[in-house]
């Protein structure tokens, strides 16, 4: 047990260090990314790095493709980008101050973090509102994914604030980790810009983005789940009994997920080489995430950690339902937005895992709140004064 605990702490420190390095590296990239669009020739760290890791032609093509869409909303996008870089710096401060119990620092930086999220996302929202999906950078599918990430980011930080105000630190922690996970899609996407061209030579940035959004939502929400479970060492939650994810629910979720996966697989395979590439980018990360969550749920159950098993199980059910959700979303996007099949397919798959992870955190939050309500009612019942026993009515008649 001691060895297992030490191993977990080692992995936790390594993950924290890796996230911190990524955030500190990406902060100047985000803050300078849009300078060339406002002043051609202005220095941009990200372009400089991308030009050397891929090619100057790849960078020039990316700038050219983004010039038109970004030109309509350059000021809001600069606000979004610069404040996004600031969020990359505030995130590690928030995490480390929470772990080290620096309460005052955590509250001050947390307030700055929340305000910065709202203002930064407002800039992104203005860009999305002013830009028709078909005219957005990387097309309608990318626009839909960006809009979904924006809503998820704003929603999660809002729920995190409400949880802190109401005195629910465990819920506050989960929602803010999910919020930061959504924010991490930006640096991870830039990493894929530097790596994927070597795996798929000849693809332009539009196609690279399509490959990336196949799994970015799943990866960042999975990272938020791992962090939540690493910080929550409780074996049980007071008031929590039973499960909201019994065997019939798990079986139904797996059957729906299997049907969704089959539909997605057939749909992508019908799109030729590009479809197979996108399918691979979706299935491999999905399978790895599924295996890790399933193993963690089983191990938690074997050691009697009921709360850990419950949270893992709820997220596993949500992950299983994600392909079914994506499959059902595709025809809706086709009809409501007038998208072609492949664009709707990419968008539906791109938002599925992220949206279901958001739903899973919602269900986990309700699970905790329900357990606390049960505990509160039990305490109220225990505090009720005991009613005096009623006197037995006197028997009629005389003495025998």
From TrEMBL:
**TM annotation in the entry:** 12-31, 74-96, 108-129, 141-163, 175-191, 211-231, 251-270, 282-300, 312-333, 345-370
UniProt keywords (A-Z) are: Membrane, Transmembrane, Transmembrane helix
- What protein am I looking at? DUF2306 domain-containing protein
Q: Which Pfam families match?
A: DUF2306 (PF10067)
Q: Respond yes or no to whether keyword Cytoplasm is given for this record.
A: no
Q: Which InterPro entries match?
A: DUF2306_membrane
Is Cell inner membrane among this UniProt entry's keywords? no
What domain of life? Answer: Bacteria
């Amino acid at each position: 047990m001691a060895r297992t605990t030490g191993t977990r702490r080692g992995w936790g420190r390594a993950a924290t260090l890796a996230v911190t390095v990524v955030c500190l590296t990406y902060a100047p990239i985000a803050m300078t990314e849009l300078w060339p669009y406002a002043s051609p020739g202005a220095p941009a760290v990200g372009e400089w790095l991308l030009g050397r890791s891929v090619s100057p032609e790849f960078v020039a093509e990316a700038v050219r493709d983004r010039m038109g869409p970004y030109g309509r909303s350059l000021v809001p996008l600069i606000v979004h980008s610069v404040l996004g870089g600031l969020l990359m710096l505030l995130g590690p401060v928030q995490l480390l101050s929470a772990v080290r119990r620096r309460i005052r620092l955590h509250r001050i930086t947390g307030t700055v973090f929340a305000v910065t999220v709202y203002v930064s996302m407002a800039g992104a929202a203005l860009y999305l509102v002013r830009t028709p999906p078909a005219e957005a950078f990387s097309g309608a599918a990318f626009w839909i994914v960006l809009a979904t990430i924006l809503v998820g980011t704003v929603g999660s930080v809002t729920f995190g604030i409400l949880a802190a105000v109401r005195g629910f630190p465990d819920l506050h922690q989960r929602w803010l980790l999910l919020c930061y996970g959504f924010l991490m899609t930006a640096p991870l996407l830039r990493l894929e810009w530097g790596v994927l061209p070597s795996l798929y030579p000849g693809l332009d940035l539009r196609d690279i983005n399509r490959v990336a959004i196949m799994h970015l939502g799943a990866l960042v929400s999975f990272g938020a789940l791992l962090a939540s479970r690493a910080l929550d060492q409780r074996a049980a939650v007071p008031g929590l009994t039973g499960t909201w994810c019994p065997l019939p629910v798990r079986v139904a979720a797996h059957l729906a997920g299997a049907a969704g996966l089959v539909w997605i697989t057939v749909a992508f395979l019908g799109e030729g080489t590009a479809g197979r590439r996108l399918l691979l980018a979706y299935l491999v990360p999905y399978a790895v995430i599924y295996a890790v969550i399933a193993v963690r749920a089983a191990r938690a159950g074997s050691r009697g950690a009921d709360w850990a098993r419950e949270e893992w199980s709820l997220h596993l059910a949500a992950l299983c339902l994600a392909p079914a959700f994506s499959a059902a979303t595709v025809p809706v996007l086709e009809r409501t937005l007038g998208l072609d099949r492949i664009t709707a397919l990419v968008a539906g798959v791109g938002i599925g895992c992220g949206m279901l992870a958001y739903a899973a955190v919602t269900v986990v939050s309700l699970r905790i709140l329900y357990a606390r309500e049960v505990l509160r009612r039990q305490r109220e019942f225990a505090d009720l004064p005991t009613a005096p026993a009623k006197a037995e009515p006197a028997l009629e008649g005389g003495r025998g």
